[in-house]
């Protein structure tokens, strides 16, 4: 019985593989516009970019948005600021700067803009703020926390749990030594 079920499952899986859509299938279905999300130093699952196909004049999925299947890219020490359309020449080729990096043209408005031609969206980044807490004898010890930014550039909320330090308890604007429970100057 197990052998028969295994064989049926195997044939079922092989059959499923035949239903995969190809690039030409997507084009025939009207998905002619190519959109590349270039993460510009960020990554999603070790990928620097992704390519999707959409129908002409479609709104694009915003990475990280609630209704989007595309995740927000991650870059250590940075937060996503926005996504910009890459500048292209008359032939549709990317215009590059002196370091061979694509040049941003304008910010993409996911709520209102639609794709009418092939485009590359470049991830723009904010460098995170750094909060440094000095503590201990003579404030000789430090703890640095990266503080991500909101899309408008304001820092996100930092909770005291971000400043956990072995042997100390955060108390307002200063730490107390757990063993002596006196204010550390």
- State the shape: elongated
User: Which range does the strand content fall in?
Assistant: 25-35%
| Largest sheet: spatial strand order | 2-1-5-3-4
Computed over alpha carbons, the radius of gyration is: 25 Å
Task: Write the topology of this structure.
Layout: H1 2-17, H2 23-28, E1 33-38, E2 49-54, E3 78-86, E4 104-107, E5 119-127, E6 129-135, E7 141-147, E8 168-171, E9 174-177
Parallel strand pairs: 1-5
Antiparallel strand pairs: 1-2, 3-4, 3-5, 6-7, 8-9
Structural descriptors:
185 residues, mainly beta, 5-stranded mixed β-sheet, two-stranded antiparallel ribbon, 30% strand, elongated, disordered C terminus
Commentary on this structure:
The protein is 12% helix and 30% strand. The protein is mainly beta. The protein has a five-stranded mixed β-sheet with strand order 2-1-5-3-4, with no helix packed on it. A hairpin with a 5-residue loop joins strand 6 (129-135) and strand 7.
Compact overview of the structure:
The chain is mainly beta and about 180 residues long. The chain contains 2 helices and 9 strands, in the order H-H-E-E-E-E-E-E-E-E-E.
């Amino acid at each position: 019985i197990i052998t028969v079920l295994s064989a049926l499952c195997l044939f079922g899986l092989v059959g499923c593989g035949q239903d995969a859509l190809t690039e030409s299938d997507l084009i025939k279905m009207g998905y002619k516009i190519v959109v590349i999300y270039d993460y510009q130093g960020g990554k999603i699952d070790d990928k620097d970019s992704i390519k999707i196909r959409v129908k002409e004049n479609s709104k694009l999925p915003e990475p990280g948005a609630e209704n989007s299947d595309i995740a927000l890219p991650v870059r250590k020490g940075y937060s996503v600021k926005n996504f910009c359309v890459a500048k292209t020449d008359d032939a549709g080729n990317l215009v590059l700067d002196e370091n061979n990096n694509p040049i941003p043209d304008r910010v993409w408005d996911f709520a209102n803009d639609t794709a009418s031609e092939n485009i590359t969206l470049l991830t723009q980044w904010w460098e995170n703020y750094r909060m440094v807490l000095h503590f201990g004898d003579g404030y000789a010890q430090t703890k640095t926390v990266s503080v991500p930014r909101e899309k408008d550039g304001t820092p996100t909320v930092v909770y005291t749990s971000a400043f956990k330090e072995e042997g100390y308890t955060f108390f307002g604007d200063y730490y107390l030594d757990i063993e002596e429970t006196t204010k550390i100057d």
